[in-house]
Amino acid sequence: MKTRQLHAEHVESVLARVTRRVAPVWPLDRFVAVNPYLGLLDQPFEDVVHRLGQVSAARSTLAGADYLNLIEEGELSIDVVDEVLAESRLELSREELFRLAAEEGTNVHGVRTVTEVLDGITDGSWSRWIRDHLGAWMAAYFDHDFATWQPSRTVDLFSSWKSEAELDLTPEVLGAPGFRKLLEKLPNDWSSAVRVALQALGVEGAALDLYLHRLLMQLGGWSAHAARLAWERRLRGEPEGDTQSELLAVLVVVEFALKESLLDKLDKSAWQAEVQALSDASRAPVPASVMARVVLQQAYERSAQLSLSAQFEQQREVATPSDRPHLQAVFCIDVRSEVFRRHLEAAAEGVETLGFAGFFGFPVDHIDLGNAEGIPHCPVLLSPSHRVASQAGDETRTKALAEAKLQSTLVGKAVKSFKLGSISCFGFVSPLGLAYLPKLLTDAFGLTRPVPKHDSGLEVALTPSRRDGQSLGIPVADQIKLAANALKGMSLRQGFARLILIAGHGATSVNNPHASGLDCGACGGRAGAVNARVAATVLNNPEVRAGLEAAGIHIPEDTYFLAGLHDTTTDEVTLFEQHLVPAGHASELEALKLALGTAGGTCRTERARRLGGNTSGETWFERSRDWAQIRPEWGLAGCASFIAAPRQRTSGVNLNGRAFLHSYSWEDDPEFAVLETIMTAPMVVASWINLQYYASSVDPEIFGAGNKTLHNVVGGNLGVLEGNTGDLRVGLPWQSIHDGERLQHTPLRLSVFVEAPTEAMSSVIARHQGLQHLLDNGWIHLFALNQAGRVTKRYAGGGAWVDWPHRARATSDDNIAWSEAS
């Protein structure tokens, strides 16, 4: 089989296209809940299920037997299965549908690499060698701080690897003679080397895309790490570089060298047969077994949508209070806030809660005391607009505390380096290890708290200044713009209470590499305290209020904004700068503190029910400080819906901590600019979180982080390995979504409910290709609510809407009757 001559531009274009199929993954200290299907959203959901089955043996839906269990449990309606099946392209009976869904085959035989073919021929394990050996090299290359052996970084990734691989005897010891000489003959630049390697491998056309995607999935974690580096460069407006392509070039060149060095075992005709199989696989339609599971997945989701819409139907119309609210509290849209908001509203009369993105419209870069560099406190879809710094009152005290913190940090780094050193660690353990015993025991028995409390004694300076050549603070004109956008975004332009809490959120846990993911999966693992403080300071600024008046937003003189932080693990709320609250607001402050305390207690009791047994609400305090705890809290497990509407539409509905709640009143949004922001930012971020939990549940081997008890942290914070070798793990640990007996996350694609005219939503969708991909290809579902809070329309794709049936889903008795009859 003759292959055409490959050109450099074509090869580079193909590699760039394929590498974009891999979603980025962020380090542990700034964990981001990433949609792992991000690079595949331009394809229909069922096509991606098929493709991922080919390139990684992923299933991307539940197993067929799982859907049968859902029917028995009443979570999946038989009537809805029939309804969705009738709408699908499948001409099958219900019985045939379930039979096909039980077949797990996804044509994975059509996508095999050289190493996988050799695994079956040589009784070796070349695939494992690539995962372990190359994975270890990538870990050292990307770890600039803790790796005891550092590869050369004076050249690019490919050149660095190639120069060392030419000296590495390992492949030849394992049975690949001449491996090093083959590498020496290749060009040193990655593009030319890949061109030579692909020419010899003979894979081209659509098969080449599939083949290269398969190679990337062999080191999917490190591919995702490289994708994150490119993402951040693009966000900064810099060239994204070739790191992803260079990593893929390494994998292609290894394939070439193994094929050529083992020609006596892998003859030409055998590999040509594999290349033909690749070509056939690239043209293969989505198998009926995959389509059957997709239909059942959609039916599962529609059953949940019908259940939620029935709750909307039962919700009594709640009139907007004519009197001024006694207290108001703005929370993040995070699903954990839904539980706390519900309990806070029940704890005291006259309390109104609102939902808004947890950075509160203030995307800042924050420099903490003792640090020289700023840390972004905003969703990774955005770049910080301003840089701010913490201070501790006067300049003298600020400098003293910063110096003390810096010294403590330097000592900590030195101790950690000594403790982790390959030789010094033995000297550390013997004389110093016992010194840790008292603290270990007191922490274990709850006598001391290994989690530091959030410092409420600091403040964030906003006055423009310069420090070490950096511009700090936010000019008043910018404060006014940010404040106006924030208030419009949360539909808070009138009806201000005397005291308004702006509550960011964070979490507390110990000995937990994924701790930052519990803080905020959208804002790079950062708690919302800084943003809440900035927002409150800006909104209390008299100059800002004067500017808002000119923009048509009147904040009463007696309205005061107070910043706080909701600890989602313990359901405690810390209030900042209480000493600045005017004396005339003392009664409101006391009422707020009492309501927060009551809500925290009842909220913990509700959350404790998910643990089963006789667990009490106080258990969450114990879990937050237990260094042996593998489930300090459930995070966003269960997230399934996003609702953008006035709070009156959901205030009487128990959404069980499964809904993102965004305040929105379309009547106050004449140009629908806020609607566009919601649909292109918070809704998209919610889909990232939802699809990360979804993928970690249905594809735990491919898109999950594995077993927490087997984790080893790589490079301080780059990520985790499951064991001491292998690929970087992405996604969520198994313990974050499973309680040991059953899934705690219900794997449903996000259902979005927006109270706005369908014409306005269609207009927004038409202007944004990314939204078209998400909605038209079935990655999220969109529904319209009317002004009575009832679901009226479902978005059907291509700008079309269809009527939504006002009916409850089938009862579990109907399902059981069908199950028994079957």
List the helices and strands and how they pair.
Layout: H1 8-19, H2 45-56, H3 64-72, H4 78-87, H5 94-101, H6 114-122, H7 126-142, H8 157-165, H9 170-173, H10 179-185, H11 190-201, H12 205-218, H13 220-235, H14 243-261, H15 268-283, H16 288-314, E1 327-332, H17 335-347, E2 351-356, E3 364-367, E4 375-377, E5 386-391, H18 395-420, H19 424-432, H20 437-444, E6 459-461, E7 465-467, E8 470-472, H21 476-489, E9 499-506, H22 515-519, H23 529-540, H24 542-550, E10 560-567, E11 572-575, H25 586-608, H26 619-625, E12 641-644, E13 659-662, H27 673-680, H28 682-698, H29 700-703, E14 711-714, E15 719-722, E16 751-755, H30 758-767, H31 769-776, E17 781-785, E18 791-797, E19 800-803, H32 812-821
Parallel strand pairs: 1-2, 1-9, 3-5, 9-10, 12-13, 12-16, 16-17
Antiparallel strand pairs: 3-4, 5-6, 7-8, 10-11, 14-15, 17-18, 18-19
Helix pairs in contact: 1-12, 1-14, 2-12, 4-16, 5-16, 8-14, 10-14, 11-14, 12-15, 13-14, 17-25, 21-24, 30-31
The backbone outline, from C-alpha atoms, is: globular
Average pLDDT taken over every residue: 88
The description of the largest β-sheet is: 6 strands, mixed
The fraction of residues in strands falls at: 5-15%
Gap from first CA to last CA: 52 Å
Low-pLDDT residue intervals, each spanning 5 or more residues: none
Coarse structural class: alpha/beta
H/I helix tally: 32
Strand order of the largest sheet: 13-12-16-17-18-19
State the total count of DSSP E strands. Answer: 19
Radius of gyration: 28 Å
Share of helical residues: 40-55%
